[in-house]
User: Fold this.
Amino acid sequence: MSRIKKRNAFQIFLAVQKALFLRELTMRFSVSKTGVFWTFFEPFVQVLVMVLIKVLLFGSATDNFDFAAFLALNFTAFNLFKNIITKSMGAFTANKALFVYKQVKPIDTIVARILVELFITGVIVICFVAIGLYFDYDLKVQNLPMVLLGFTWLVAFAFSLVVLLSVSNTFYPSVGKTVTMLMTFLMFGSAIFYTMEMLPLEIQSLLLWNPLVHFMEMIHGHYFYVLDDGLVSYYYMALWTLIPLYIGLWFYGKLEERIISL
Amino acid sequence: MIELKNVTKYFMTKKGKNYILKDVTFTIPSGVNIGILGRNGTGKSTIMRMLGQIEFPNHGTISSKHSFSWPLGLGGGFVGNMTGKANVKFVCRLYGRNKQETQKIIAFVREFSELKDYFEMPIKTYSSGMKGRLSFGLSLAFDFDYMLIDETLSVGDARFKKKSKEALIKKIENCHILLVSHDMGTLKELCDSGIVVNNGALYYYENIEDAILEYAEINKRAG
Assistant:
């Protein structure tokens, strides 16, 4: 009735991504309406709460950059990273029923979930920008290409970690739980509601071991005119992207067949 | 033609390796419908899954120029929260069908599976028979060179069973099947040749009757 066509690897990849993306999106939004609501509302609550805390603690003294915009930018980046990791980590086990279709490779399910996160982040960014414009916030960007590069690199970093994590999570489920827990600590230790320059030197040198700090500093350093990327080590970021990627893909290659026939 | 070269497949048990295939080199000829026979646990389904490339041999290679369906009868691959229609659409997208083809397939599956209004209901509201009907209808909508069927002909009530058998007989005019079944009647009706799986080896019989006799012999020996 409908002939099986010969397709090349890339055509298959595209077809699979399209199918998985739409499926993930429907699943995400059909399971619970409150879930949908929180997906889009959470970032706004995060920003509001942190602005409130700041006003209560330090009064409404103004910085030389817009704190609300600063928070919105940082939470967008951090949530993107966090959601890619926590949501894609379980992609193999959640989608194992789909591996009966031989064109669906386990890694496709990771990519599809990352695409869904990017889509959701895109919608949130549009909301933030719309609100910012409406209330006349100063949204001027110092160096847009570098900010975009920062986001892209962040996604690449998250991808390289999540390949490694989802392979280990498949065979040792406690990995996933630990990582989810670690995310809370990361939120406080990743220069999200402060810049590194605000911190004492000792704490600075400690926190700079955290790769995510470098990504955050890169992104807001290039966004705001008064901030810079002076503390960012691009070399350190590259190490944290390439080494896990190499290890992760190596293990994935070794174990792909076992994951398929789980 | 399906070529198996030095294929070894085992599963680890507490007492060591349990061999499904032990260094099997074998060519399954083209153009025939093949029934796979064997006692429970000898690895018929595993062989099926290996041909569908979702299970892999520990050593050796299996190669073929033909296209294979997903192994039918596992009932997997459906999302409980999505409607039957959405699930059919998903599979069409996986196989790169365009809008027009997808519409045709959806119409066909709706008609064949007789799900009526349930076709637009989430799969989790289906009974297992309904799921089976959907899955069988969906597989008929694609033209593979080989369909891998694992005991799915026992889906639905007597009338639907008859209908699906008739549909399958019509289907195998254009394609071939590899069928795992314990129902000798079905095997005789649909298959030309047979493979008997026993003790890590494959035995090919050009005539399905011979395969059935051998299978009966094995069963007798096992008591």
